[in-house]
Amino acid sequence: MSNAPPKSITIRDVARIAGVSVGTASRVINDAANVEKSNKDRVLKAIEELGYVPNRAAQGVRGKRTREVGIIIRDITIPVLAGFVKAAQTVFEEAGAVLLISSAGTRRERELELLEQFRKRTVDGLVMTTYDENDAELAAARHRLKLPVVFFDRDIDGPEDCVVVDHFEGTRQATSYLLGLGHRRILHITGRMTTHPARARHEGYVRAFADAGVPVDPNYIHCSGFDATTAFRETSARIGQSDRPTAIIAGGIDMLPGVLKAVRARRLRIPEDISIVANGDSDLAVLATPSVSVIRWDYEEMGRTCAHMILEHLDGEPSRKQRKIGFSTEFVVRDSCAPPPDLS
Amino acid sequence: MSNAPPKSITIRDVARIAGVSVGTASRVINDAANVEKSNKDRVLKAIEELGYVPNRAAQGVRGKRTREVGIIIRDITIPVLAGFVKAAQTVFEEAGAVLLISSAGTRRERELELLEQFRKRTVDGLVMTTYDENDAELAAARHRLKLPVVFFDRDIDGPEDCVVVDHFEGTRQATSYLLGLGHRRILHITGRMTTHPARARHEGYVRAFADAGVPVDPNYIHCSGFDATTAFRETSARIGQSDRPTAIIAGGIDMLPGVLKAVRARRLRIPEDISIVANGDSDLAVLATPSVSVIRWDYEEMGRTCAHMILEHLDGEPSRKQRKIGFSTEFVVRDSCAPPPDLS
DNA sequence: TTGAAAGCGCTAACAA
DNA sequence: TTGTTAGCGCTTTCAA
Question: What are φ and ψ of residue A178, in 5° steps?
């Protein structure tokens, strides 16, 4: 409980008790092959007796590897992202690595800061998203780390591995479904075109219109941000107008609360007055009245995949080729969509 | 991008370029007072030029302090807990410390494991919850770390600081409110009595009944677990019986989804057939139909408080007296409660 | 297979 | 105020 550093048991104590040299003790700890059984047992016994624990910092100084992996996400309070992190963490933990978790929000400067932080912390690898896939300064800051990086839900032309979601297909399906119900004024709110999810969703939206032979009205496309605040603001603004949308696709994982609040405030009924589709499943989507149709995918499996990819970099032979792994989406129909009201 | 450790720039390089000794360079890096301005500037310039970053591991070996703080929570995917962690993290980051986040779920063995992990990682402090406030083995494992510990929402007789929520008053208020509406069969679901939140809530519940002069029926009290699964199971079981409750208090921060699912499955109407009160606010409570009355408190401020308390241990003089800090609750009335139906 | 010893990058005690 | 140097706990040569 004291502030003073606990005087610790060192490898020297272990060696002394076991009656071997520190070199031998070290070999046992790192289970090298060439240690005589009897010595090994004595060392193991000494370790047990003393409750010895290798000092990670000291191991790190010599070995240069910290077995710490950084992760940069948008916001840990977004449930699906928390699930992603949790799943990744489980994998890392089993591999004796530890996760340093941080949130960049939707701020470019913050991402730069974090990259610098991780440089100081000398992590061994990074799982991250990024504000802008094409930002040269961000890329430079990343490369300066000289670290294995795995992107999730970002599609980057570079040396980094990418784990991406097939948002194109998800949004295409949802849009087709709404068009099929008779909707024409479908509001699509998503992030800026500098990241894969926004771009892919937008393309899926456009494709569905093209497939249906319906012209796209850019008036119903808002690509300004992924966050809940943006969702509320954009929805509020658009549903207050006379040419208000008859359906909304919330193109971001934490947009549903904002959209719902805006719709409630305007006293529109779902789905009679307006239909809703969200991205990413949640308790809210399931338990809202009516329940909300969603485009969903397996965020936890993505977390595990990202973790495994980093671990392969840490433990495996250094392979230089970039890898891209895709995750497919599923469109879940619930009760939040109906044919559009007659607004004529 | 390589797996090979980047050959790094050391303090010696900095000293050489700046034309000073490593001692002086070290002093500048740790901004000690007694360095001549001109030397300091030269060192700073050299650091800048070289892009030098102190090796944390090496600093840790010598100084014994890692400026890493561990945190053990139940589950990062519970939104209020994620908010707690995020707020704490912000404080730590500003202080140049880094958070190692881990979840113990509701498993005692897992908590023991994590404690051991943190011992290996040689963190400087721990913010945690615990499975059982009176478990001697858990306490022993904690003390073995010889670390400053801050508990949140646990009330421990020991050397550790505690930051606790006034669940007694929260649940007392909610129970009084329901009693006032005419309810008598109020189901209280919460965790086992081995932790402060469960105990305090239970006492608040009992006190409200006593104040109203109504006898408590133990049939309506279930103290088996905090988690969502338990909430669903207990609710389902109880509302299927003929003496079913007319109101439910969900005495845990992630119970609302489970309770709501069970009630929906049974096709009971809220609040006509059954009234609901939840612990901890959430998007779901706000946006459910009807919106759900909650007992809430400021989880983020708690996170900041816990972080500050640990930092005081790390940076301040070692003070030995245990501190307890309380957080008050607020009862927010929404639309999920009404007088009980006539079940006679 | 083992032990001795040389560092890893850094801090802190000691002299100057 | 500075430089020199002895470690911190560990890994990893290098000889034996």
Answer: -65, -40
How far is CA A326 from each of CA A86, A151, A206, A305, B313, rounded to the nearest angstrom?
Answer: 20, 12, 21, 10, 46
Do the beta carbons of residue A18 and residue A45 sit within 8 Å? yes
Contact check, Cβ <8 Å, A99/B99: no
Structure tokens at A26: 């070290």
Instruction: Please tell me the distance in Å from B270's CA to the nearest CA on chain A.
Output: 12
Global pTM value: 0.90
Contacts of B276 in chain A (CB under 8 A): none
Which residues of A are less than 8 Å from B6 in CB distance? 146
List the one residue out of B285, B255, B270 whose CA is nearest residue B341. B270
**Among all chains, which residue has been given the structure tokens 């309770």?**
B259
Contact B65, B96 (CB under 8 A): no
Put simply, whether A1 touches B (Cβ < 8 Å) is yes
Which of B66, B76, B86, B336 should one mutate to test binding to chain A, selecting the residue with the greatest count of A CBs within 10 A?
B76
Say if CB A249 and CB A178 are below 8 A apart: yes
For nucleotide D11, give the residue with the nearest CA to its C1'. A62
Left, alpha or beta for A82 (phi > 0: left; psi -120 to 50: alpha)? alpha
Report the alpha-carbon distance of residue B87 to residue B72 in Å, rounded: 15
Tens-digit pLDDT profile for chain A (344 aa)? Answer: 333 334 578 999 999 999 999 999 999 988 777 888 999 999 999 998 888 888 877 887 776 677 889 999 999 999 999 999 999 999 998 887 888 999 999 899 999 989 888 877 778 899 999 999 999 999 999 988 888 899 999 999 888 999 999 999 999 999 999 999 999 999 999 999 999 999 999 999 999 999 999 999 999 999 999 988 999 999 999 999 999 999 999 999 999 999 999 999 999 999 999 999 999 999 999 999 999 999 999 999 999 999 999 988 887 665 667 899 999 999 999 999 999 998 65
